[in-house]
Amino acid sequence: MFVVGAGLSTLETAADPFLAICGPPKWSEVRLNLAQAIQGVGAFVAPLLASRVFFAHTIDTDQGLKNVQWVYLGVACFVGLLIILFFFAPFPEITNADMNAQEHAMTEVDPGPLRKQYNLFLAVWSQFCYVGAQVAVATYFIPFCVETGRSDATSSDLLAVAQGLYALNRFIAGGLMTIPAVKPRYVLAVYLALCFVFVVAAMNTTGTASIVMLTFVLCFESACFATIFTLGLRGLGRHTKLGGSLLVAAISGGMVFPHDRRRDR
């Protein structure tokens, strides 16, 4: 798990800033939201394939363990092919000087020292709090459904539906941001406000209604991560790479916020 976590964090640190700055700055939110939408589709499809195809006939025996090992070996081989592809693909190397020149060409203003990048620091704090809230909602979604009388299997399927809406809404958010009158910060503000509204609604309803409200929370969380990320990188110039690393590190909020409910008893 440590190796997987280290690999994913490295990938996020490299890929997210690259997507944010590899094209016209005004479309950075669109690019990252669409990329995150593809990731969301994978997060939705992969568990369904695992439970209904790859591990559908897995039994608790040595043969069952071998079946699981073959699946993971196949995934590892596919990742190895991707590594080879990225090694030979002609991706441009974007340096701090390039990013500083791009920012200067846009604003003709030097971004200044890192300690004065208040927008970045606010974005890091926002990302920390947002990811903590997102992980908490996703972690307790199934127990929440079980407490309303659903079975574990049904609750798992409901979570899959919520994740599907999460992925779909990322495409919708990316499309909205292509409209000149719709600023990314407006989309972020509306989505966060809707998350708040539906969380309060989920807390004050019961049964199916509460599950629907919590599903909408997951749905409108969709565009928040990517939009906070790209807004936090705006105007950083030569500090963009470090800013991207700090924003990825803010994912640690997902470790801090969720807690074991048994401690509350």
From TrEMBL:
Location within or outside the cell: Cell inner membrane
InterPro entries named among the record's database cross-references: MFS, MFS_trans_sf, MFS_TsgA-like
GO function terms (MF aspect): transmembrane transporter activity
What does the UniProt keyword field contain?
Cell membrane, Membrane, Transmembrane, Transmembrane helix
What is the recorded membrane topology of this protein?
Answer: Multi-pass membrane protein
Instruction: Report whether Transmembrane helix shows up as a keyword of the record.
Output: yes
How is this protein annotated for GO cellular component? Answer: plasma membrane
Superkingdom in the source lineage: Eukaryota
Is Hydrolase one of the keywords UniProt gives this record? no
Which residue ranges run through the membrane? 36-58, 70-89, 120-146, 185-204, 211-233
In Swiss-Prot or TrEMBL terms, this protein is called MFS general substrate transporter
Instruction: Provide the species name.
Output: Parascedosporium putredinis
